[in-house]
Amino acid sequence: MSIDFQIADSAHLDGVRIVTPSVFEEARGNIWTSYLAADLDALLPDGMTFTHDKFSQSLPNVLRGIHGDHKSWKLVTCVWGEVHQVVVDMREASPTYLKHERFVINRASQRLILIPPGMGNAYYVSGRDGAVYHYKLAYAGAYIDAADQFTVAWNDPRLNIDWPVSNPILSNRDAEAAHGSD
């Protein structure tokens, strides 16, 4: 069994990287590696390393985000279930400002998405049994939690995201952002 990654630049958003791990399939299921410091820390700016992991377990039809900040690098994936991952460029000086890219992540299409600072992160849980989502974070200084992050409405008409849902389950934070975009 080989442990390696195919790493590609996004064709749509500068700085976003798509990491496809080697997946070993056999009769019992599969196994894959989500992180090797030598390979994945090399994608970060000099001197920065991943220091913080989080998991989020979500029910079907949940949409989380669009959230972000201007200092955190995020390496995200779905470790169980299926999500529609969306990355939105919220960097006003960027030539791809307000552009987005969407990925379906599931067992058949396992990948990790590296999201640089200034990008919005969101995902919709399309699997009927829910999903488990993993964040690996790198940042300088203290962690920026929800109160210090930006929030953009999942249905913001400027973004024109083709979500596979019209009435998702939202947090209060995301519902308030969506209500403000009407």
Can you count the beta strands? 13
Strand order of the largest sheet: 1-2-10-7-12-5
Overall, the morphology is globular
What percent of residues adopt helix (DSSP H or I)?
A: under 10%
Helix-strand string: EEEEHEEEEEEEEEH
Distance between the termini: 51 Å
Count of separate DSSP helical elements:
2
Main β-sheet, in a few words?
6 strands, antiparallel
| Radius of gyration over C-alpha positions, nearest whole angstrom | 16 Å
Give the percentage of residues in beta strands. 35-45%
Q: Average pLDDT value?
A: 94
> How would you classify the helix and strand content by structural class?
mainly beta
Show unreliable segments. none
